[in-house]
Amino acid sequence: MVKFRKQKKENPAEFKDDREPNIRFPILLMIKIVGWEMIWIIIGMVGYACFGAMPHIFNILMGELINIVVGADVTGIENKINNLAMWMAIIAAIAAILTWIGGSMMAYSFERIGIRLKNAYIESLMKQEIGYFDMKRTGELMSWMTESMEQIQDSFSNKLGRATQFFVQVILGIILALVFSWKMALVMISFAPVIILIMFSSGLASQLITKRTLKISNQASAIANEVIGAVRTVRSMDSENKEINRYKEKLWSGNLLYVLRAIILGAPIGAQEISIWGVLALGMWWGGQLLVKSEIAFANMFRVFTLLLMSVLGSSQIMAVIPDLTRAIQSSKNLLKVIRRIPATRFDGGITPDRIIGEIEFKDVSFSYPTRPNIQVLKNFSLTIKPGQAIALVGSSGSGKSTIISLLERFYEPLSGKVILDGNELSEIDPHWLRTHVGLVGQEPVLFSGTIKENICYSIRKTSNDPFPSEEEIINAAKAANAHDFISALPDGYNTVLGERGVSLSGGQKQRIAIARSVIQNPEILLLDEATSALDTNSEAVVQDALNKLMKGRTTIVIAHRLSTIVNSDLICVFHKGELKEQGTHDQLMNSGGLYAELARKQMMKKQDSSEELTKVAEDEIALETPYKSQATFETVESKESLTSNSDE
């Protein structure tokens, strides 16, 4: 099971993931991911490198022009100058072509690399265990994919090419200067250690500060995503200004870092000015000394002077792009931490039984959530569920009921013990096969942007073994879920496009579409987690009827809170603080006079209460939560009374 530890930082709610990889060489890892796309990058970098050599070629030709002009032989001087001009024009044309090729190749390659990285990121993200998402904020994960990717593409597609160009310009300039006059060149490049030290120091400092500023930016983005996603709640609570201030405070919390970063970014600019003018002054003085001593020709003095001048200018340009490249490298680390992370639970692979019977066994199962490792929500839980049984899970909020469903879906792995399905350990079964045969209807149905038809068929993979349902099958599923009538009444029927999360539908309508989705899936095991708790009386009755139809002939585990569904449960399990305290049929539990019977009697005394939801009667009271198997009412209790208004976990 994946372990998390608390970070000793400003936010005590944050946890550090022990499975998060340490990314030391992000560039090498990115090269491995992008594969053959590196060919386009190399072509682009070669183009930029050739362009970086162009200023030096011009300088050499200019030196030749000086030799022609000041030379003793003036014969054919016009033709010589014309030839030089022609070569300069040719070189200028070549430079333009190389720049175009380099820029185009780099832009094209990083567009494709961006797609590859996004695909790798979302693929890895979707394979992570549910516990990983408990630790991470959705907005932060999404900002890594959007903002970080934009920084990578912008910096590497443009800045990397320019850095290559200026690097070649610096190195080639120094080499050629040494060739033409090593005496003059060595003195002029004495500034190089200072420039290199400034570049290295500013780059390192920029990387450290960028890491922290990026974190603040991602956290602010997470706040914005959270607030926008819950804008109706924010508006209803009149909390717009509070959220605006929370966002502002997060952004401004890095004000000192922004100041330090600005100082660091400004330091290279001052250094480059000192370097340029220092090299010019030193070169002019020392070149003059050598010229007076006849140890250097004027043309070579000019060449060395201009070659090293271009090298210094190139180094200043490199210093200018270092912060952007540093920011891009740090952004790539955020992406690679997700891409390279190995999930705590296996995403695919394992045995695929020929058929499923539906017998489930829990053997001494204990479990703690990653966010609460010191709190066991299940303690040595054991239970055998026979095929076709309807099992009710009863207990107060936080007693472990929803955890059992999560373990059956393999959202988490037990801390200890085993979950067994038809004689096979759940951890050995292929997760894809498992979820094909296990259906889940939750308290808050999730619908996606798209048509109603697409949402009903969401679980279908569209393969030869899992073909897309026919129109008739979709309609029959909707009828079974009591959804066909309201869908048909819509202008576009089953082709009605739903907004994000199905906001255009009522809670009952969304729940019925979710049930139709399970009907299409046709699972042998059905899990119902508070499937009607959020609905009004009328919607509940319609959804209840649909659930009754869906449960027939299936192994069913249900968490519910309506008393009317208790009586006909095959087995009722009563939980308290993570432990199974009682189990049996309704009659057995009533006759035993235990927790279940006590709470049932208290509820009967409140049957005159006009509210459907009973208030919590005591801190440790057990709330009944049971399956939807029948609409039969408990003989002494009104059918719409509720045992608890709290949802599990």
TrEMBL record:
InterPro entries: AAA+_ATPase (IPR003593), ABC1_TM_dom (IPR011527), ABC1_TM_sf (IPR036640), ABC_transporter-like_ATP-bd (IPR003439), ABC_transporter-like_CS (IPR017871), P-loop_NTPase (IPR027417), Type_1_exporter (IPR039421). Residues 42-327 form the ABC transmembrane type-1 domain. Its main location: membrane. The chain crosses the membrane at residues 38-58, 84-108, 166-182, 188-209, 251-269, 275-292, 304-322. One of its GO terms (cellular component) is mitochondrial inner membrane. One of its GO terms (molecular function) is ATP hydrolysis activity. Residues 360-602 form the ABC transporter domain. GO terms for biological process: oligopeptide export from mitochondrion. The keyword Transmembrane applies. The keyword Membrane applies. Keywords: ATP-binding, Membrane, Nucleotide-binding, Transmembrane, Transmembrane helix, Transport. Gene3D superfamilies: ABC transporter type 1, transmembrane domain, P-loop containing nucleotide triphosphate hydrolases. Pfam families: ABC_membrane (PF00664), ABC_tran (PF00005). It is found in: Membrane. It is a multi-pass membrane protein. Belongs to the ABC transporter superfamily. ABCB family. Multidrug resistance exporter (TC 3.A.1.201) subfamily. This is Predicted protein. It comes from Naegleria gruberi (Amoeba). The lineage of its organism: Eukaryota, Discoba, Heterolobosea, Tetramitia, Eutetramitia.
